[in-house]
Design brief:
71 residues, mainly alpha
């Protein structure tokens, strides 16, 4: 007798009765929250940079005083 081969059914997605992985869900939520916090901090930094009173940065201080060197 020959065995009848049935095609293997691949289960690509989750079934209604399948249990969800709580660690995977927590990591996905943490990943999303990290992106939101990063974008918020970049927005705050850009807003602070663009809203300063002085649009041009002050020149750097000189390391040497303004006088003639001793001869």
């Amino acid at each position: 007798m020959e065995a009848i081969e049935r095609p293997h059914q691949s289960h690509q997605g989750r079934h209604r009765g399948a249990h969800r992985d709580p660690v995977g869900t927590a990591l996905t939520a943490l990943w999303g929250l990290g992106h939101i916090v990063t974008l918020a901090l970049l927005g705050v930094a850009a807003d602070h940079q663009l809203s300063t009173d002085h649009p041009v940065a002050a020149p750097p201080a000189r390391s040497l005083p303004d006088h003639d060197p001793a001869v």
